[in-house]
Amino acid sequence: MEIFQDKLYALADSIRAREKGDVVYLRGIIEFSNYCRRNCLYCGLRRDNTKLGRYRMSPEEIIKRAKEIAALGIKTVVLQSGEDPYYKLKDLVGMVSRIKELGVYVTLSIGELSTHAYRELKKAGADRYLLRHETANRKLYEVLHPDGSFENRVRCLYALKDLGYEVGAGNMVGLPGQTDDMLWEDLLFMEKLQPEMVGIGPFIPHPDTPLAKEKGGTLEQTLTMIALTRIILPKANIPATTALGTIHPEGRELGLKVGANVVMPNMTPQPYRPLYQLYPGKICVNEDPDACLPCLKRRIESIGRTII
Questions:
Q1: For the stretch 133-144, what's the b/e string if a residue is b when 16 or more beta carbons lie within 10 angstroms of its beta carbon?
Q2: pLDDT, tens digit, for every residue of 252-307?
Q3: Where are the beta strands (DSSP E) in 164-254?
Q4: N or C: which end of the chain has fewer CB within 10 A?
Q5: What number does CATH give the domain 21-215+267-294?
Q6: Does the pLDDT of residue 1 top 70, yes or no?
Q7: Beta strand pairing status for 128-130 and 105-109?
């Protein structure tokens, strides 16, 4: 089994080298609100988690942080939040258009919206949209998302494709009730969708959710899914996720060695930074984000990669 995995990882890494070279793309994330109208069973931001201190950054705070990210030489700003209806479409459109003026790419990760909203945000200048499907198994999806539907998630993904976004999908590995067959469903779903980006991370149980006592996803499972994804989607951008770095001290480096080619440093400012608790134990949340960047660059360069 170990020999098979070594060969799988080597194949995935060779495809990454052929298609993407030795560059690692940085995408700076601003987690601008931890309010969420959804009640997903695995997520620390879920609506019913009353133990979480909530926050919203103002549009001016978000623009200021985007300017600081651009000044650091990071070429993509990612705006991420829970599904927070507090921000009206006109507010989001205004933020996107102002951030585009900085000469950066704008990626959004703000959940399920109407096709009209996606169209207006694209017109304002949004380039990419991240909307992980989490699991392509309909039954498991609807157990985990009691106020959502798999059909609507798929509708959103294809609407984004039709509007010309670079689309990010992706799944969680090690979910309660997830089988190997379900992980194959994820791979087949992504092969059909052909997303430009795929985010794959381990399930990490949060103590203030209904899945608090469940077992989490493993490093081995997650690396295997990253490698298989690189093989079936050779041209996709695949991040080595923060969640991977949370379950193993060298998780991100290991992800980069099995097919990943993107790292998304958390650039959320204090005091908000520790409060975006999708899962517990998230790395670097108590540090100054600008100070983290040189460390991250050194770690990436230590495995022979060049940062863009």
A1: bbbbbeebbeeb
A2: 999 999 999 999 999 999 999 999 999 999 998 988 888 888 989 999 999 999 99
A3: 166-169, 172-173, 197-198, 201-202
A4: N
A5: 3.20.20.70
A6: no
A7: parallel
